[in-house]
């Protein structure tokens, strides 16, 4: 068995690392032969540390390097694959744009830092793009030509995957579906600084704020409190989930009209909460989707907690084997 890939997932609240084997395209397979990927990738030595999100890029990279060294131990590795928050220049392995969730993260030079430490090839891509690869190859997209991943949690992101490769866009920014305009978000502030976008209304924090505006009692302080209120029958909490779900579903319906994906995978904390959200998403999709694509399966993601690590490792494996065709530039859901 070949040496593993050291996989890292750099997020706004935590950094995860693991050693991953067998996540790439099988030897001899064409890059677009989606049926010939490893069916049982190995994930070992998984470790997590809190992200020093407010301490700047240097502190975040130091924490990532320390965790990576811990996970690696004395093992030989063949490459490093990184999933990171922010818009990523995949050619250079650097962050070009990032939100305030990670202080000073824009401009971070991820690949150079890891290359200097481990002296093996380094591959870096956006975290939702990595999650998309993981889900396409090892989740509901396995054996399918295309997948649209929709991640609804603290933010809202997406990724279109074609034949196992993510659509990155010409600037690495493809998939920001949370910044599409939706009618119910008119006047609602979005974290990007504008108003009227899906993320401001229908992300986890957006739904909490919506429930407060609708008069949830007691006012929920976070998503866990909101989900609990919904389970206990609070009408405002349930209505907030319904409004957000319909808006999310209408966005997905519109994207299906444009992308004609073979399957949609839903992931993220909001999608997992016990609430009216899932039925409302179906209602929203039905409102906007064209008849020709109305039967597209919309499923819960199945690749599990390691999806982004698997995707990052798979990207690194493909690059090593020459199976990585580089960034796709379109079409993209953004």
What does this molecule look like?
By secondary structure, the chain is α/β, with parallel strands linked by helices. The chain has helices at residues 57-72, 110-118, 127-138, 198-202, 204-213, 223-231, 235-259, 269-272, 277-288, 307-320; strands at residues 5-10, 14-21, 42-50, 79-84, 87-89, 94-97, 122-126, 146-152, 156-162, 165-166, 264-267, 298-300. The strands form three sheets. A five-stranded mixed β-sheet has the order 3-2-1-4-7, sandwiched between helices. It has a five-stranded mixed β-sheet with strand order 10-9-8-11-12. It has a two-stranded antiparallel ribbon with strand order 5-6. Strand 8 and strand 9 (156-162) form a beta hairpin. Residues 26-31 and 324-334 have low confidence and may be disordered.
What is the H-and-E element order? EEEHEEEHEHEEEHHHHEHHEH
Note the gap between the termini. Answer: 40 Å
Poorly predicted runs of 5 or more residues? 26-31, 324-334
Shape: globular
In the sheet with the most strands, the strands line up as 3-2-1-4-7
Report mean pLDDT, rounded to a whole number: 91
SS strand fraction = 15-25%
Number of contiguous helices: 10
Number of strands: 12
Radius of gyration: 19 Å
Largest sheet: 5 strands, mixed
Q: Estimate the helix proportion, in percent.
A: 25-40%
The secondary-structure class comes to alpha/beta
